[in-house]
């Protein structure tokens, strides 16, 4: 419902080469909209009889996502979002039985017509996704949800995750061996956190066109710098032949390798 950077790849994280035999994924998207109308339309998924629902949107406490959770409260559901960041909001999700992964590092886009068009939107999301992928944030989401899938496969009541994914937590999933690479990745994640702080006034507070466009442009330029820094971190690991790769086996097991010519085990 709606879009954050992770939304674009969320359904691909669990079967990256389409050979996994232990689970199937189906996706319902409401595009950029996330109102109560779109929430009601998610009922179409009931016919799929899902074992696990992943509900991803900006601001999980907005009316649309709240209404959607009411529909899915009887099915194991993990909320992936950029908020709520405050403890009270997260506690409400936990008390209602929902799992959550709150990605503070998946920033608000500069969503103002005065600045944003289709190309700018795609370019921003490309920078965000690249940064999230290369710094450990995407792997945090994938491995956390894979753990829940394994519990469901074993016939267990799944343990719902309750994770506030700040930069320091995300980078621990990056598999970095070089401390300078890890430092660059952590810096990139902190920069992404700042992007949302820059874009929020442009989206919700400013009225003057110069203020709006200048601020939104600054937010997007900041995201670009984060992507460049994340790429530098990756290049350090590549130069040492220590890039962490964790593909899925056919049975869903997460394999691992670091050397380029090594076979995943």
Can you summarize this structure?
The protein is built from eight helices and four strands.
Would you mind describing this structure in some detail?
- This protein is an alpha/beta fold and 265 residues long.
- It folds into 2 domains: 1-103 and 137-173, Rossmann fold, CATH 3.40.50; 108-135 and 175-241, no CATH class.
- The chain has helices spanning 36-41, 63-71, 87-95, 118-135, 137-153, 167-171, 179-204, 209-239; strands spanning 53-57, 77-81, 99-103, 162-165.
- α4 packs parallel to α8 (209-239) and α7 (179-204) packs antiparallel against α8.
- The longest helix is centred in the last third of the chain and has 31 residues, at 209-239.
- It starts with 35 loop residues before the first helix and ends in a 26-residue tail after the last helix.
Uncertain segments are none
Number of helical regions = 8
CATH superfamily of the largest domain: F420-dependent methylenetetrahydromethanopterin dehydrogenase (MTD)
Net shape = globular
**Percent in strands:** 5-15%
Terminal residue distance: 36 Å
Look at the structure and give the mean pLDDT: 97
Key words describing this protein structure:
265 residues, alpha/beta, Rossmann fold, 2 domains, four-stranded parallel sheet, 8 helices, 4 strands, globular
């Amino acid at each position: 419902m709606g879009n954050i950077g992770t939304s674009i790849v969320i359904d691909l994280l669990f079967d990256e080469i389409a050979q996994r035999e232990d689970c199937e994924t189906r996706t319902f998207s409401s595009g950029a909209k996330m109102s109560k109308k779109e929430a009601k339309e998610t009922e179409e998924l009931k016919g799929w009889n899902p074992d696990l629902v992943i509900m991803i949107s900006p601001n999980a406490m907005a009316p649309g996502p709240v209404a959607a959770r009411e529909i899915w409260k009887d099915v194991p559901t993990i909320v992936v979002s950029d908020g709520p960041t405050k403890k009270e909001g997260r506690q409400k999700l936990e008390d209602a039985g929902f799992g959550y992964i709150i990605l503070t590092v998946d920033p608000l886009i500069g969503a103002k017509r005065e600045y944003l068009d289709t190309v700018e939107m795609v370019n921003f999301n490309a920078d965000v996704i690249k940064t999230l992928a290369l710094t450990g944030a995407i792997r945090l989401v994938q491995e956390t949800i894979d753990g829940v899938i394994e519990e469901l496969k074993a016939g267990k009541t799944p343990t719902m995750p309750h994770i506030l994914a700040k930069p320091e937590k995300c980078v621990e999933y990056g598999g970095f061996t070089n401390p300078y690479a890890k430092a660059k990745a952590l810096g990139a994640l902190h920069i992404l956190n700042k992007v949302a702080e820059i874009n929020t006034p442009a989206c919700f507070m400013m009225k003057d066109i110069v203020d709006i466009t200048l601020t939104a442009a600054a937010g997007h330029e900041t995201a670009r710098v984060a992507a460049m820094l994340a790429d530098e971190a990756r290049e350090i690991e590549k130069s040492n032949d220590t890039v962490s790769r964790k593909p899925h086996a056919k049975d869903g097991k997460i394999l691992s390798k670091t050397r380029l010519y090594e076979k995943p085990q």
